[in-house]
Amino acid sequence: MSSKLDQLTGWLKERKITEVECLISDLTGIARGKISPTNKFLDEKGMRLPESVLLQTVTGDYVEDDIYYELLDPADIDMFCRPDPDAVFLVPWAIEPTAQVIHDTYDKMGNPIEISPRNILKRVLKMYADKGWQPIVAPEMEFYLTKRCEDPDLPFQPPIGRSGRQETGRQSFSIDAANEFDPLFEDMYDWCEAQGLDLDTLIHEEGTAQMEINFRHGEALHLADQILVFKRTMREAALKHNVAATFMAKPMTGEPGSAMHLHQSVVDETGRNIFSNSDGTMSQLFLHHVGGLQKYIPELLPLFAPNVNSFRRFLPDTSAPVNVEWGEENRTVGLRVPDSDPQNRRVENRLPGADANPYLAIAASLLCGYIGMIEELPPSQPVKGRGYERRNLRLPLTLEAALERMESCRQLEKYLSPKFITGYVAVKRAEQENYHRVISSWEREFLMLSV
């Protein structure tokens, strides 16, 4: 590790970095941490943050006291955050030369903090490594561009492009519609290249001003780091061009939701894809992997759909799958198996929302498949044709129901820390309670003078 830290020191000095953003991800996927002068960062080689940062909600509130004190020291002690030399990125939009460094979290005895999202993903990856396996993932990130708006009570509107007009109608895969925002995407690509992000293609998705960025396949932890950085980068590029980028799962009424599709496969120590037999057919491990996804995604759904808004993606006629059926070359089911050669055989989990914490969504998706392989779980019969209306393998349709299911699934405690499950469910329940305290425009419009 010391040699890697030396490489990090050299990297910062070579680029004349004057400030370092020291980051961790909280449970909601928000980057939290400190901004440090480079000299201080190099002297301390880490930072301290209150443990309570990991139990903050998206609104900045905390969980109820009884859960808080069950999971954390009542004295609100610090955790120790150490930089990962393999998770260092420039901040190209900063005025001064600045870097962002993702940190791992530990207690004072050097043990990984159990409720840290990055540590959860590392825990799952170790399970694979202990079997001689390495997961390979390729995320696809959907998002919307919108007009900037200061009033949260007003609906989002599509932004004005180079033509001076707002986009109207569905423009799936339209090159010209994507080119409306060329200056923005040129900055985004330049900044991502400067940060070493493994972007592949840009696509105009189905929704109005909805886009998708595909990442090249690679190692799971590195890609989770990249998604955290990419979201910050995309928002900054949008702000520079006086529009907004949102990764909400369902930001606009009547428009499709935004997903974080996850392609995943597994290779052995020789690099061979264990999802294929030597004759090129589907292996039993692949079928068990799919079986695990089918059985456990509904139990871990809050990690894929973490917010009240997430479940609006799963309403009827929203273009999103609402079950864990599987099928080959079938986009109407939750688990799609793309047509590919045997070495590239993979399954695409189409259920995570763009609003999901990347560490937790990738960890959960890989964990479901891992359990399936370990417990030799059989999949259902693959679906041919339209799968939206299939009801046998439906998902919980509200956050309340999903949290109850996750909390009551005792099998998960064998693989995930009970502390993490308790903490995550508590954070999401606190957010849900906060949401229920807000009166919506729908209630004012339809109930004010009618009931």
From TrEMBL:
TM regions (residue ranges): none
Known cofactor(s): Mg(2+)
One BP term from GO: polyamine catabolic process
The keyword ATP-binding is annotated on this UniProt entry: yes
GO molecular function: ATP binding; glutamine synthetase activity
Pfam families xref list: Gln-synt_C
Keyword Kinase: no
UniProt keyword terms in alphabetical order: ATP-binding, Ligase, Magnesium, Nucleotide-binding
Domain GS catalytic: 117-451
Similarity comment: Belongs to the glutamine synthetase family.
Protein name: Glutamine synthetase
Annotated organism of origin: Stutzerimonas stutzeri (Pseudomonas stutzeri)
